[in-house]
Amino acid sequence: MVKKHQIRTTVNGEEYDLLVDPKKTLLQLLRENLDLTGTKEGCDEGECGACSVILDGKVVNSCLVLAVEADNAEVTTIEGIHRGEDLHPIQKSFVDSGAVQCGFCTPGMILTTKAMLDEIPDPSEEDIKHYLEGNLCRCTGYSKIIDAVNLAIKHSK
Amino acid sequence: MEQHSAVGKRIPQRDAVDKVKGSAIFTNDIKLKGMLYCKILRSPLPHSRIINIDVSKAEKLIGVKAVLTYKDTPQVKFSISPTWADKLPLESEKARYIGDEIAAVAAVDEDTAQEALDLIQVDFEELPGVYDPVEAMKPGAPVIHDSVENNISKAIHMECGNIEEGFASGDLILEDTFSTQAQSHCSLETHCCVAICEPNDEIKIWVNTQAPHALRQKLSYALNIDASKIHVITPYLGGGFGSKIDLEPAQAICILLSKKSGRPVRISNTRKDQFISTRIRHPTISELKFGVKRDGTIVAKQARVVMDNGAYNSHGPAVLLYNNVMFSSLYRVENIKYEGYLVYTNKNWGGACRGYGDPQATFAQESMMDMIAERLNMDPIDLRLKNANNPNEITANKVRITSCGLRECLTQAKEASNWAEKKETKSKYRGLGIASMIYTGGGSIGSGFNYSGATMQINADGTIHLSVGAVDIGQGSNTILTQMAADVLAVDPEAIRLTTADTDTTLPCMGTFGSRVTFCAGSAVFQATNEVKNMLLEEASEILEANMEDLEMKDKEIFVKGSLGVSVTFSELASRAHYKRKKTLIGHGYYNGPEVSDDFDPTSYVGYPSPAMVFATHIAEVEIDPGTGKVDVINFVAAHDLGRAINPLLVEGQIEGAVAQGIGWALTEDLKFENGKIVNPNFHDYKILTIKDVPKITSILVETIDPNGPFGAKGIGECAMVPTAPAIVNAIYDAIGVRIKDLPATPEKIFDGLKKI
Predict the structure, then answer these.
(1) Which residue of chain B is at minimal alpha-carbon distance from A140?
(2) Structural domain total, chain B
(3) Whether residues B296 and B226 fall in one domain
(4) Residue B260, phi then psi, degrees to nearest 5
(5) What is the arrangement of strands in the sheet containing B172-180, beginning at the earlier edge strand?
(6) B239–A139 C-beta distance less than 8 A
(7) Range of the domain at B298
(8) Is the minimum CB–CB distance between A76 and chain B shorter than 8 Å?
(9) Residue B207, CB half-sphere, CA atoms under 13 Å: how many?
(10) Is the Cβ pair A100, B12 closer than 8 Å?
């Protein structure tokens, strides 16, 4: 048997004490152990961004992060950003702009956008493209995703 | 123009809130108690005879609950239709491509299942492989399917008018060859299913399919199980683009493993599985010959197409047919000859892929049109206007056109792109290119079916409940179908409950493909909702003592026109119907068209029976970096005749997404093979566009109001893919004088071309 590691991690504001397999990824931990299936697996090799989550303020591909690396860290997933009954302004902008088609890339897109706006409140179009370059979308052609980010920026002012 | 309460409105997708919250459940999110995980053993060789499969060691591994080989299957070959059946869920005698299914394991977790695969011993006898369809057609080439001569799975010969006389009457004859490459669909969600075999032998399968009702039929056929014992449910689906229409071997395997183990089983493709084992866009080689008059009239056109089928048929024969129909019916040409061959090779098999054979035909034809315009010293738009299709015409190959906005697409795209001015002031390394297309806007009844059903019911509590068999695969059909129903009943679309994509609770629908859902499912919804509307009006007319035509609906109430105080609610009407008259308020709609005329002969390949054709024109503006050969698409205009836009916001989304996919196919996407093996099966080496690569896309919606479409609408899903690549390639030529005849237009090809000028 593989020796499991004890970790303490905060996910969406809730604290967990967990025993994890050392080769398990943060993506697997979130989806399989915590049933937070809003985080999607698109490629499992860090190329598509569908599994993006925020780890201690930085956006990461959770398929490339080991679960043990979340020890003593704070993780935010798509399930953790709405405000009570209300959608987060970025979520609302994605809905209103028609930026959501199949929705599989959407959680990752929104979390990357959130991490960007937390860091740069007023990004240029170049900044937006730079931050979202690692998040692939096959449905929208990205036009309405850019509209959504711009709408979110407008709402936050 | 008539007023609409919901149709024509820019309403966000009704499912978007679930999706932005992360609460939308996709197939891979389903976890059942006791569920096992499946992995499939695939052929490592492109062509081989299977001598022996020994699974004894795998069966003994702790955690393994079932191992499957062909011996556990009914060994019924399947395809899109029994006529073309050539694939087993698990192969028994031969493996025909790298990735072919040989055996499968269900175990307590994925690691154990993977470990068990390594314990399965397969003895293969390697056979010579053939990877080039032209080589595969030659006598003496390796035989891939025993009964198929020269590896030609399907040949199409179509001729109309008199091709020789046609060419003889031309002032200019132009011939050239164009080729296209394999493209992977790359939906962000990979293929996945969860199957459970109930104690009464009933099977329930949650699966990300574009066609649940058709899948039930196909599973029934391939597994020899009565269709009434199969329940297919499609949860939220993460993109399809044609890749999720087929019966996948994995789906049959999942069911059989569940039967064998007595436990639920889930199979979920990794991204690599997705690249190496699901369908691809068929590569083609198209030899074209065109005859034209000095004034630009096309007097004859001819195509000889070799389409690389890969190892199995899937949709191949129908994709070849579409290649013929779309090539032949674009523009008014009297004399046409088409000769097409679908050829097996030891590679991944082609299938349905956005545009279904049309992008390949249009790339060749629209490149040729530009070459003709140059030779005639004509503006490429004028050449296309000279030959454009018109409304209410039957083409030489007997395709019936109802509404047609091709001329409007050409002229409006020209204006929006600032064509005339930009051509005048052209700068070095910048260019503009144009391409048009024709496609179906409502599926086809060519195979005998084009069905979609819908039911609408109003309950005593006032609930308005619409059920459709169609699947929303991300394109937004759930939203636009409820908009149509809401418009008929004059209610808010949000007021309508919706059930979809479940074979137990919805009427059959062929599925989401062929740009057919808006037209076909929309027609069924329109019919079902109008039936209920009439029931409501009949009830109301009795209660309110007024003629039906004097009644008006608003906010789930019916009024007498002009006297707003006198009204009755839907809920009161449904209660009265239910409890006093013992009647339900349920309307049914069923579309299955168009009517096929008596002279339709599927063997002559003329007379393609589509309910509506759609048209489009794309104009691309590119800038070339002469130092690297890199193409930057800087502006893009896409004008589409879609009958009517039920929801312009979602229509734009379809156009923008399809254009991005088309730019990818034109410039960067190339599934590369070496001796039958895909060498770039990941997103690092197979480049789909990122947010940095897409230009601003201007969509122009040309509303021709089709006489047969619901609210005049036609389909939009696939067609925006179609003319994208030729518009870009024509723009590259305009910029630097390099004509790319084999896709993709890579920097290497452009750089080499520049050196030769």
Answers:
(1) B657
(2) 3
(3) no
(4) -70, -40
(5) B152-160, B335-344, B298-310, B284-292, B172-180
(6) yes
(7) 284-445+600-756
(8) no
(9) 33
(10) yes
- Is the pLDDT at B1 greater than 60? The verdict is no
Q: Which two tokens stand for residue B443?
A: 């599926």
Tell me how far apart the alpha carbons of residues B507 and B585 are, in angstroms, rounded to a whole number.
17
Please tell me which of the candidates B19, B31, B683 has its beta carbon nearest to residue A100: B19
Q: Report d(CA B460, CA B468) in Å as an integer.
A: 21
Whole-angstrom distance, CA of residue B317 vs CA of residue B263:
38
For the entire predicted model, the pTM comes to 0.98
Bridge partners of residue B175, in order along the sequence: B289
Q: Domain range for residue A151?
A: 89-156
Chain A CB contacts of B238 below 8 Å? 40, 102-104
Q: β-strand B557-560 against B551-554: which pairing, if any?
A: antiparallel
Residues β-bridged to residue B157: B339
CA atoms A15, A18, A21, A27: torsion sign:
negative
* Chain B residue with Cα closest to A127: B692
For B495-513, the pLDDT digits (tens) are: 999 999 999 999 999 999 9
- Tens of pLDDT, residues B86-109: 999 999 999 999 999 999 999 999
Neighbours of B387 (CB within 10 A): 19
Note whether B698 contacts A: Cβ–Cβ < 8 A: no
Q: Which residue among B19, B655, B684 places its CB closest to the CB of A106?
A: B19
Q: Scan for tokens 């990941």, then name that residue.
A: B682
Q: Is residue B211 included in any domain, yes or no?
A: yes
Q: Considering only the beta carbons, identify the residue of B473, B650, B656 that sits closest to A141.
A: B656
In a mutagenesis test of the A interface, which of B21, B37, B206, B243 is the best target, namely the one with the most A β-carbons within 10 Å? B21
* Cα(B490)–Cα(B26) distance, integer angstroms: 32
Residue after which a domain boundary falls, among B561, B592, B623: B592
Q: What is the mean pLDDT of residues A121-138?
A: 97
